[in-house]
Amino acid sequence: MIEAMATATEIKNHFGKYLQMVINGNEVIVTKNGQEVGRFVPKGKTASYLTDSLAGILKGNYDYKDAKEEALREKYESID
């Protein structure tokens, strides 16, 4: 859940307040000159945030297990 949107200056001047929001499980969006430049996301929500970010990027029949095995095979075959 997004709790707050604040400028970089506001975050700098009141870091403790925004840190507590994140500790409480909320997300804080940081802006600079009206543009979103970052987010503070609770550690427990980072995996779901990254997963949600990938939604729509992977197309077709994507098998994570096969892709992981292939990546590991390529990595270790290049060492030989």
Describe it for me?
With 80 residues, the chain is an alpha+beta fold. Helix content is 48%, strand content 22%. It has four helices and three strands; from the N terminus they run E-H-H-E-E-H-H. It has helices spanning 8-13, 15-23, 46-54, 64-77; strands at residues 2-7, 27-32, 35-40. It has a three-stranded mixed beta sheet with strand order 1-2-3. It is elongated and about 50 Å long.
Write the layout of secondary structure elements.
Layout: E1 2-7, H1 8-13, H2 15-23, E2 27-32, E3 35-40, H3 46-54, H4 64-77
Parallel strand pairs: 1-2
Antiparallel strand pairs: 2-3
Structurally, the number of domains stands at 1
Helix proportion of residues, in percent?
40-55%
CATH fourth-tier homologous superfamily: YefM-like domain
Q: Classify the beta-strand content into a percent band.
A: 15-25%
Overall mean pLDDT: 79
CATH classification class: Alpha Beta
In terms of quaternary structure, the protein is single chain
In spatial order, strands of the major sheet run 1-2-3
Question: Count of DSSP helices?
Answer: 4
Rg over CA atoms, rounded to whole Å, is 18 Å
CATH topology: YefM-like fold
Q: What profile does the largest beta sheet have? A: 3 strands, mixed
The run of helices and strands is EHHEEHH
Q: How does CATH name the architecture? A: 3-Layer(aba) Sandwich
Task: Give the overall form.
Answer: elongated
**Strand-pairing-aware structural class:** alpha+beta
The unreliable regions are none
Please provide a brief summary of the model:
The chain has 80 residues and is of the alpha+beta class. The protein is 48% helix and 22% strand.
